[in-house]
Design goal:
Layout lengths: L2 H14 L10 E3 L8 E3 L2 H8 L3 H11 L10 E3 L3 E4 L3 H13 L14 E5 L11 H19 L3 E5 L7 H13 L2 H6 L1 H45 L6 H37 L1 H7 L5 H13 L3 H25 L16 H10 L3 E4 L2 E4 L8 E4 L7 H16 L3 E7 L3 H14 L4 H4 L2 E7 L2 E2 L13 H24 L8 H22 L6 E2 L2 H4 L7 H18 L3 H6 L9 H11 L1 H11 L3 H20 L8 H24 L9
Bound molecules: arginine.
The site of arginine has 10 residues, from α14 and β10.
Length: 661
Amino acid sequence: MNLLAELRSRFATALESLDGADLSDMVLPSQDPKFGDYQANCAMPLGKRLGRPPREIATELVEKLGVADLCEPPEIAGPGFINLRVKTARIAELVGDALVDEHRLGVPTATEPRNIVLDYSSPNVAKPMHVGHIRSTVIGDALAQVLKFLGHKVITDNHIGDWGTQFGMIVYGYKNFGDDAKLAEAPVGELTRLYRFVNSLVDYHALRTKKIPEAELAIDQQQLAVEKLSSEPVPEDQKAQKKAAKKLRQAEGLLNDCRSDLVALQQKLVDAENDEQLISVAKEHADIGQKVLAETAALHAGDEENVALWKRFLPACLAEMDAIYERLNVSFDHTLGESHYHDQLAETIASLEEQGLVKVSDGAKCVFLEGQDAPFIVQKRDGAFLYATTDLATIKYRVENWQPDALLYVVDHRQSLHFEHLFATTKLWGEKDTRLKDLELEHISFGTVLGEDGKPYKTRSGTAVGLSGLLDEAIQRALAIVSENDDARAEPLLSAEERQTVADRIGIGAIKYADLAHNRTSDYVFSYDKMLAMTGNTAAYMQYSYARVSSIFGKAGVDRQQLRTSNPTIDLNTPAERSLALALLQFSEALTRVASDYRPNHLTSYLFELASKYSSFFSECPVLKAESDELRTSRLALCDLTARTLSRGLELLGIEVVERM
Ligand code: ARG
């Protein structure tokens, strides 16, 4: 049973007669046990709404509220809070139910299962994958698992970028600087080399012909602005004086920013000029930017040679990507990349035009959206389609083939404007199509993974290989920690092989957990030391907690299966036992929270809290040396359910546990 959902539904019934059914969400778990287990704050807003004293409303609500089977008589506190304490006997009974529920541990499935398409990971192949793609992969996978566990139908689709400019780059690179021998020997290495080389050539020319001149111009303009401000007569009035001074300071600040931008660009240019290989060919490839676009356009137009090269290069790129997925233990129902939609783009534009949504501006086809400064460009003036066009075609395809209720995109926050435009356009497009109109479209945005210097985290080489190195390093460090801890034992417990397995799980778990435990919308600093710490809200601590609980069964010599089915009486006479038992029942609430705003950190917080409740229980309540056999069994049952909840919760987050570490 989901206690919170149950209480809310009972409140909804009671609230209905007072016209306040919409307020049932104001029943929440209490922050402090002295206010009971749950607290309802709805009497205050309802009092306001009805123009009656909230305490009076609270009294009326309590009279109407049918919770006698679940709770002690509700108490009214302060201005009209209703405090609810679940009957301890009921908690014990529900723990018994969860105990025998092998797979679901008492978690009910959603009353209204939905059909959800999850778009996540979605890297651009042939281009170095970065930690942001790991974050998308890890968050997306956790959401997929939680939503599935709650009974929703989830279709996962990896919308890889396999059709963009990066292919124009490697095609151009191959034609001009390719090395067939290297390509045969180590395709990914060679493709990465070509990508980087072409990319730096493009960058080099852009710096010289565009970026630096633009930055210089920006300085001139800002300089003028500063001069103008400083030549203005000083106002008489003190307030105005202050205001003018502030304006001048701001303008000077901007000027400084412009100057440091230029310095940074110049530094890049110096670096490029020191690259002999690059400079030796730079002259001959002065129009490389155009040429790369032309190669991409030729690929899109079906040019035989370019299509053949694309087909030749793609498998190696995919294999490289799959190797990372295998290590992360994630898989997708579909991997329909951008190329899959290529021949649906023209009809997408036609369909938008048919509905009168397209306006031509400066030669480009655009959809103008209310309240947005910039339009959503769906076709460039040279006829090229864009990322946006593909995303529109993708929505249509998904709607037609999978009939989803919701489309969720786990993509980093820098793309939020794209998704805002995409969703608004889709709603216009779907004006007459209920499948599109009623579709929930959600950008599951996430923040940047930062390095210790506060700048976006870069792996040493910044390549996909670098990502695999990132996982290696986490595992290596985990192995050192595991070995050190084991060596410190009077008698080491783990074989070399076991140490390695444990280190694999802790290392990968650490990276995943760090991605998940931080509120997804905030940036966080990537730190091996922090994520591998054995204490605090980390994977290692959670895995350790699991192993610690598990170790008790061997010592107790009990058959856990038998323990579950023997229908043991659950005794919750101490506060620590009761509090642990209640926390165990709240697993389903944590999962529901994750599903409600798509934030996996609700689950990590829950598990962390559960582990700490277990700790208090374990230090206050002897298990193996309990006063009676019945009590020992009851406590072992709590241990069993704790272990299973921890491991199920971690499993849903994509993190594996170990029996000992
Ligand atoms: N390939 C894109 C990138 O790496 C992300 C794609 C996200 N999904 C989508 N349907 N737009 O930035």
